[in-house]
Structure formats: structure tokens, C-alpha cells
Amino acid sequence: MGLGPLYNRLSCIACHVKNGRGAAPDSENGVARTLVEAILWHGGEAQSSADAFRNLPELQRDALLAFLNSL
Q1: b/e for 8-33, b at 16 or more Cβ within 10 A?
Q2: Which of 26, 50, 63, 67 could pair with 42 in a Cys bridge, judged by C-beta atoms 3.0 to 4.6 Å apart?
Q3: What kind and span of H or E run contains 68?
């Protein structure tokens, strides 16, 4: 179990170590220029996270981006 549908350290082994800390998620292939692009361009297993982010109210989206940028 992780911290919710938008962040789950157990399903993101590439960027988070066992304690959940690690590098902030970014674009795996370097194409996305921003965190928003990196999040929204996810599909496949991460599609539900991209959809959840897209549907967040602006205030919550800004708070999440501020958190990700603080990592």
C-alpha cells in the first residue's frame, strides 16, 4: 500500500527507494519539458494517475506540483 492513487512508492521502484524517498518523478525519455507534461503523457498502467491529476481542482493540482518540485 502506498500514499494514494497519485503516488505509490511500491509501484515506482525506478525513482523511489524502500523508504519512499528518492528523485522526483520526471520524464523517463526526456521529452516532457514540465512535470505537468510528464504526468499527463503517462498511459498504460499510469493512465489512472494521469486522469486523477487531470481532474484535480486547480488548488490541489498546484499543491501537488509544489510538493513534487520540493523533492
Answers
A1: ebeeeeeebeeeeeeeebeeeeeebe
A2: 50
A3: helix 58-70
- Reference 49, options 58, 57, 39, 59; nearest CA is 39
Domain boundary assignment for the chain: 9-70
Output the nine-digit C-alpha cell for 41. 503523457
Report the distance separating Cα 41 and Cα 1, nearest Å.
Answer: 24
The predicted structure's pLDDT at residue 52 = 94
Q: How confident is the model over 14-69, as pLDDT tens digits?
A: 555 555 555 555 555 667 788 898 888 888 888 999 999 999 999 999 999 999 88
Q: Which residues contact 31 (CB under 8 A, 6 or more apart)?
A: 37, 41
C-alpha grid cell, residue 47: 493512465
